[in-house]
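FAQ: What does the model actually see?

It sees only this:
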Amino acid sequence: MPKDIKVLVCGAAGKMGQAVVRAVDSEAGFKLAGAVDRVGNPNIGKDIGLLCGINEIGVKLSGDLKETISKSQADVMVDFTMPEIVIVNAQMALKAGICTVIGTTGMTKSDIAELSKLSKQNSTGAIVAPNFAIGAVLMMKFAKEASKYFASAEIIEYHHDKKLDAPSGTAIKSAELMVENRKLFGRDTVSGKETIKGARGAIGDGNIHIHSVRLPGLIAHQEIILGGTGQTINIRHDAYDRTAFMPGVLMAVKKVMELDCLVYGLENII
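And it is asked to produce this:
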């Protein structure tokens, strides 16, 4: 029988990290091998299963990634931390030959390029995905296709009030994909004047305006609006619970084991 995929979770005490721990623990063919969070977390040393509201599973939360990599013998590291932390974590994992799945957003293009280079140098797979919800990936695919026919587009993304980066990685990735089918949007729109600075949002790739909403009560939502003569098309995805991202995370954990380079975007593996 094939062995279980041993998974190490970084940011395991956070909301997304806990969801990953529960998903890995409940999925056949997977085994939680390690759980790491920031040094100073008061729960360091406690069983991560109990912290996540499931049974005790014999894996204690650690504040030392290097030590956990050595002890866990993990096959894959899943990271949901922060932009300034994920780069160091991923470098450490890839150098140790551990495949890496990154859901942390806020990384720059140069950050991703650096990790791509390291992935190739070590012949170790990596997947970076701004969004792991299958529905969100389909939303981006549909918007890319629609961009062939609509010359104007805007993106509104809505997230919880604890999200640190804006715009979201999903909004940035959406614009990148849409530009593959149309280099410039909004050429026919009338130039206006902002009476309040920023009212028209930020300008992403291809002159697509992106608006970021941050409010308590939200999880992750995005609407892509494309306009043409006498018509508009709205493509929207809503994630009401973090479990929406788990099938994509587990898919990525399986797929990354087959890679020897970095892949950016879940749409490239489904």
